[in-house]
Amino acid sequence: MKVIVFDLDETLCNHTRGEQDSLREVFKAYFYNRDLSFKEFKEVFSKFNKVSWENFEKGIHDVEATLRHRFKLLCDFYGMEQNLEEVSMGYKSAYIKNCVPYEGVEPLLSKLSETFLLAVCSNGMEQIQMDKLRYHKIDQYFSCFQFGSYYPFCKPHQDFFQSLVEDLSTDPKDILFIGDSLTNDIMPAKNIGMKTLHINKEHIVGEVLQWNLVLNKVEELIG
């Protein structure tokens, strides 16, 4: 095995915490005086977020339009159309800061990078994902980055995974894909011939990646 490819959100970085903390910052900055609770605000955002990402998956919007659309729906709902740019940019800045790597990620990447070429393969807006990696100083471990920003060149589509293989110039059997989603990561990677490691609740306990366990699994797969 020559290359290890990592999904980013919920595999290396705590997207759930990042989203929650960033939403709370946006709520306090723009919506706190509208006589609603954060719980209500979060439920409304979650509904619009779900609709927007469904549009992305159908090829209606690219990722940049998707990220903007959810906040347009949110601001329109609360009669705050004039605040769209501020809210959207405020969330983006907060998310890059708040979407922290799990504890244990850095020692895992440091150890694996001694032997393997490491890559990141994730859906999302390239600028945001790269800013997130740089802000938390884990970009240094990776030699290749691929981000799915429009249909069908995004996970879980075969075109996206084929493009990854071509970029890596490596036979799929020499690639290990590590990710948290069976649908977006594991199955399409298997279908193209890669080895896979599914990150689940056994591997992430609280906000800590059990990196020695992951390392042992990697060694089993290559052994």
From TrEMBL:
Xref: InterPro entries: HAD-like_hydrolase, HAD-like_sf, HAD-SF_hydro_IA, HAD_2, HAD_sf, PGP-like_dom2
Transmembrane domains' residue ranges: none
UniProt keyword list: Hydrolase, Magnesium, Metal-binding
A Pfam family annotated for this UniProt entry: HAD_2
Cofactor(s) listed: Mg(2+)
Chain coiled-coil ranges: none
Molecular-function GO term, any one: phosphatase activity
SUPFAM superfamilies named in the record: HAD-like
GO-annotated biological processes: small molecule metabolic process
PANTHER family in the record: GLYCERALDEHYDE 3-PHOSPHATE PHOSPHATASE, N-ACYLNEURAMINATE-9-PHOSPHATASE
Name of the molecule in the record: HAD superfamily hydrolase (TIGR01509 family)
Lineage: Bacteria, Bacillati, Bacillota, Bacilli, Bacillales
